[in-house]
Amino acid sequence: MENFVVSARKYRPSTFDTVIGQRALVTTLKNAITGNQLAHAYLFCGPRGVGKTTSARIFAKAINCQHLVNGEPCNECESCISFNEGRSYNIYELDAASNNGVDSIRDLIDQVQTPPQIGKYRIYVIDEVHMLSTSAFNAFLKTLEEPPSYVIFILATTEKHKILPTILSRCQVYDFNRISVEDTVAHLQNIAQKEGITADADALNIIAVKSDGGMRDALSTFDQVVSFCGKNITYKDVIDNLNILDYDYYFNLTDLFLAQKMSDALLLFNDILNKGFDAGHFISGLLAHFRDLLVCQDESTATLLEVGASIRERYKAQAKQCSSTFLLDALEETNQSELEYKQSKNKRLHVELMLIRLCQLTDQKKKVD
Q1: Could you tell me the domains of the chain?
Q2: Backbone phi, psi, residue 113, to 5°
Q3: Of 19, 109, 188, 367, whose CB is crowded by the most CB atoms within 10 A?
Q4: What is the pLDDT of residues 139-178, one digit of tens each?
C-alpha cells in the first residue's frame, strides 16, 4: 500500500512561480538573483502557512543554482539535486525554536568560516528566529552585520515585533501577505483536479475562509475533509465535518428579525445550541453576517464579500430587503453583545436578550417614523 503524503508536503512549491499569493515579493527575489543584487541578510515575516520557509528554501536553492532559468532554480544541476535530496553542504537550515541557545549560534558562527564547496554561497536559513534567546541574538549580531562575502542569512519569523531592532536594521525585510480566499480556492481546485476529486466551489470557499489566509491550514483541512467525504466534496459535508454553522441559519434568523418573529428566533437559537455550537461563535458569525449584508447593499463594496457565487446572490437578495438603518443598528447591537458576552454569567439568556432586541429593531423604526 502506497504511503499517504499530506497535501501540504506533496504540493509544496519548488519554484518561485508556484508560490501562491506572493507575486510581488517573489518577483523582487528573482530580480535580485538575476541582477546580482543579493544582500547578506534577509528577514521573511508573516502569518503561519503563507510560504515564508518555502520561499526561503527556493531562494536559497536559486542563489546557488548553476543553470538558472529566468530566475528559477533548474532542479537539474548538482547544487539543486543535492538540496532536493537533503544532502547539500552549502545550504543549512536551523530551527531556532529548538536550537535557541547561545551554543547553537556559536556553532553556526564557526561553520560560517568555511567557504562553499559547490556554488558561490553558503546560505543559512533560520526558521522561527524570534525564538532565539537574547544572548543568542547578541552573539549573532556581529556575524550578521559583517559576514564573509560568500555567506547569506535568510531569517523567517511569524512574530516580527519580537526581533531586536539591531537585527532588523541589518536585514532586508520582506512582509508576506495573508493568502486571499480567491487564491486559496483556485489552488484547492487545482489540487482536487490532480487528485481526481470533485468539489463544490462553496465547499472549497468554506475551507479557504476557515484557513484565515494560511495555505498550510487550508491544505490540512482539505485532507481532513477528503478523509470524510471521499472523492466527492459537498458543501453540506464540509460544514458537518468542520462543525461550522450553515449560512442558512443566519439568513433565516435575519428574515425572522425583519418579520419580528421573536418566538421563532428563540427556537432557532435553541436548535443551534442543541447541535453543539458555541453561543460565542454564534454571535461572531451573526455579526459577520450583518457586515456582509451591509457591504452587499452597494455594488462597489460587494467585492469585499469573500463567499461562493451562489451564496453571494443570496446575500444580495437579502440585502435588498434590509434598510441601512436596520443593518447599522443590528451591527451595533450584536457587536455590543459580543463585547459583553464573556462577562455575562447567564450566557444563554444574554444571547436570547440580544435576539429579542434584534426582533424589535424594525418595530422601533416604525414608531420613530
Answers
A1: 7-175 (3.40.50.300), 181-241 (1.10.8.60), 247-368 (1.20.272.10)
A2: -75, -15
A3: 188
A4: 888 888 888 888 999 999 998 888 888 888 888 999 998 8
